[in-house]
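A quick aside before the break. I want you to see a complete sequence-to-structure record at least once, exactly as it would be stored in a machine-readable document. Don't worry about memorizing anything.
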Amino acid sequence: MTTYLTSPQQATRANTATLAAHHVVFFDPTGRRWRLAQSVALLFITLALVMLAISWQPIFQPPPLGDNGRALAEPDLGDVGQRGPIQYIGAGPLVRVVRLDHTQSGIVAFDPVTNRSLGPVTGDDADAVSGARYAIQRYGYSSVAHRTISLTFDDGHDPTWTPKILDLLSKEKVPATFFVIGSQVAKFPDVVAREAREGHALGNHTMTHPALTADEVQREVAPADRVVRAETGIQTNLFRLPYDGYDNASRAQVDSDTLDVLIAAERLKYLISEDDFDTSDWRYGDAAKRPSQPIPLPPTTMDNMTILLHDGGGNRAYTLAYLQRLIPWARAHGYQFQSLPQVSPEVNAGLSHGAPSPWDRETLLFADAVWVWPNGLMQALFILALVSVVALTAFNILLAVTRKVRRRRRAIPVPDGLTGPSVTVVVAAYNEEQVIGATLKALCLSRYPKLKRILVVDDGSTDRTAEIVAAIAEEDPCIGLLRQPNGGKASALNRGFAVADTEIVVTLDTDTIFTPETIGCLVRRFMLDPAGRLGVVAGAPKVGNWRNLLTRWQALEYIIQIGVDRAAQDCVRAIMVAPGACAAWRRVAVLAVGGHSRSTLAEDCDLALELQKHGYEITQDDEAICYTEAPETVSALARQRFRWMYGNIQAIWKHRRMFCNPCYGWLGMVTLPFAAISVLLPMLFLPFIYLMLLVIAATQGLSAVLFYFALFTVGQVVSALVGVALARERPIHLLVAPLYRLIYEPLRAYVVYRSVLMILRGTKAGWNKLERTGAVSLALLD
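That is the input. The structure line, written in tokens, reads:
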């Protein structure tokens, strides 16, 4: 028998009492929230730009230039780059570029920055630079320095090897000079503090250890100085170039590019340190490059030596072993160990102590924000991800398996016509001409004997939906048609519940195909509840259009979420969502709580939480199988998942008083808090995580990123294995498991941020149903 409701007034009156109480969650018709959000964002951006404008120049100006001195003119190097490599002259731990004036009385060296005379060039040095315009002069050893060794360490700090090296130096009472990287100082402040406390000298080795160009010198060196001062109160103008600035292993000459770097550092009044003996110990940290012979000891013919070693940048076990061999060797040959300030008056003169300036502290804060906080946050997020993904997955698997074992011990047959309750099926339809026929025909094949009525509520369709339903109803009097003006899915479902007169109401989507046993499997759970506290029985939807990668991915997702996650929730009576695509409802319970609410897009989640708030229970029947049509395109999938995400956020916020409330058991203490966390954490940290993955890929290589990906993929594969086993699905589903997170993570990022934007804007989101293709057919039931 077909029933028509064509009067808009009748439909409106039927829903007025229910709809009047519904306020759309997050809807802000005034637009105040969006204006406030824009104002706050603009304020933060303005403050950040103002702070950046105020701080930028001081942070990148070293004290000798920006605080105590004045900028010096850049020297005109002329065509120095066309004259070939620049030669070395002199001896000492420091180097500087000198301009050579050739006169009748000889060659005189001048500082090209200050134009100050540095004295004559004589002997072999004069012969080496004959005709040259520029040279690199070594200088700096004290006139009283004799048989000294200055140990210098580059590339620190390392949290493992630097403390071990310091332990050895302390034991042997050997002072040293550490050329530290600013970012490492920020990461490991306790190490640099120990170096200063134990009397070692500190030098600048740039902020990030790049292969410097002249334009990068000030940006790299000045902030590193400020970080060291902020951590130790020590100010020094001692500087060493990364990679020592030279490609020529003999150190006999330097090219014009390095000359530009040296000049740029000298203009900033830095003293540039170089070594007399390079141990090349950095080669021994890499097994692939490690020489077969041990690190060589220096020649005994040299009077004073500055020895280059490394305490960071890799495995420094060989460096530590070398020091244990070098120190007794040096003392046996009459050498004494001194730091660079001890052997060089120039270095000592540039060393001072004082309170860090505000710019120093701000630079350290910036360094912490770039190099310390992200690492700490990444570690915390990694641990949280392990807990939430790995531990929670393991816990869900345990609960799902426990539930499966319990239910096997208590088989529940499908009720017969004498014992089962009467059932009405309600189908909310809006422009469903592509699929409504197959859906109704599948329902008519149901073997449940007490299926009293199938009600299709046509919610103002503009296509042939009503005609198709009417035609099928002529052949099967069990089918009824209710027509009403478009009011949304919740309105249509409420209309169906109001007309239904049976104890149980089954709902399904119009693109869903029920098996002949589905309704009976849903209903049988109510027969185990004589007290009438069971409010909903959720079914087990499966993807019926398994046709491309997206639908195959969704098929696996349904298996995991229903077979593992929701089964685990069912084990502890904490199901959050009873899917409207396949569920059986106790009609009196639904009407008692006000029916389906129009205040959220996830009316099924909203109603499930409302029922549990009123003391009703929810369970799931794994054999109540149906087949649904999954989105086949990226845009359709994104629209569907946005509606789910935004609707669930609305429902969670609406029922926020259930959070961490022991009155609601596991639902209030675990399921809802975790659901909120699964939204909040991505919203806050996803951009940072993606940025850090790019940084890790750039600094540590793609293999490091693949390691993290593989770790979580293993957890996903295990979860998929269990889900497929519990659902008795085909193993072919597991082929998609390695790609699961590649689709899931970008999709989650999109729906989370679109939902946040929708909340801030305070606008309404409509039903926005997907276009049906009719890909799910009755052939699935064969």
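Two observations worth writing down. Residues 1-21, 65-73, 79-83, 246-250 have pLDDT under 50 and may be disordered. The longest strand covers residues 617-628. We'll return to this after the break.
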